[in-house]
Description:
The chain is α/β, with parallel strands linked by helices and 207 residues long. The protein has helices at 14-25, 47-57, 72-76, 87-93, 124-133, 153-160; strands at 7-10, 30-32, 39-43, 66-68, 98-103, 115-119, 137-141, 166-169, 179-182, 189-192. Helices cover 26% and strands 21% of the residues. Strand 2 (30-32) and strand 3 (39-43) form a beta hairpin. The mean pLDDT is 92.
Amino acid sequence: MAGRAPIVGAIDDPRSAELACDALVRGGVVVLPTDTLYGLSARLSAEDAVRRISAIKRAPNDRRYILLASSIDMVDGIVRSYGCGSREVLAAAWPAPLSVIVPAGPACPAWVGPTVAIRVPALAPLRALIERVGEPIVSTSVNRAGSEPLDDAHEIRHEMGGEVDLIVSGLMDGRTASTIVDLSGKAPRVVRRGSYAWAAGDGKPSK
């Protein structure tokens, strides 16, 4: 990749969505707005692109990232189960900035590991893009390890424009990371408190 990545319009613009889809399908790394923060993104099956993301972040190659799916039906295809959680509860909660850690299914690449963190994002144009790509995408905050996430497309281009393939600007629903709840054990455990409220006690999410 030569030069700095171009910045294109918002993700709800058809041309921007087309360019992002093409870059992801080709195995590229794309900066996408989400329902929380900007994310460094790649197709789940594009392991080389996922390694590029780790290099961009200055993170270990075995770093694991949240996956974004277009629907709970897409989630069904890559998880073994919903652990101690309930598919029905998550189907009612999603789309939302709520990521859950559950047992990974056989369709997940080996690098994912025994569990996977996944969510269905609240940003409708992003869900449409993921559906068009045809598989979940990796998503992680746009920052070097130990630094604060970047939240401006031009700043991202200045810092990382030579390391990514495309930057899609704007149209984020929020600027707080998603809540992460681990459902892979005997009881739900909140790993990170974020922009979604998870009700304590009965393990059911509450909007």
